Amino acid sequence: MKSDAARQRVIAFDRVDAVLGALVAFGGGIVLLVNLWARTLAEWDEATYAVIARNVAVSGDWLTFHLAGATRFEPPLYVWLEAALFRVFGSSELTARVVSALAGIGVLVLTYAIGRKLHSRLVGLLGAAILLTCYQFVYFARMGMLDTVLTLCIYLALFSYIKVKEGDRRWWYVVGAATAVAVMDKSAGGLIAPLIIGLTSIIDGSALRLLKQPEVWLASGLAVALVLPWFVAMTLIHGSAFIGNYIGYRVATRATQTIDNHGGDLLAYAFVARRFFFPWVYLVPFALFVYLRSLVRREISSPILFVAAVFVFGFFTLVPSKLPWYIIPMWPATCIIIAVFLREAARSTWLGLAAIAFSAAIAAFYVPQSLRVVAGLPIPRLLTFGFLGAAIVIGALLVVRRRPLAPVLVPLAAAFFFLGAAHYIWPVLQPFQSPESVVAKAAAGARHGEKGPLIVFVGTSGVVPRTSVWEHVIFYSERPMRAIYSLADLPAALATDTPRGILVATADLSTVSHLYPSQVIVTSEPFAYVVIRGCRACRDSARRCHTAGSST
Question: What is the pTM of this model?
Answer without folding.
Answer: 0.91
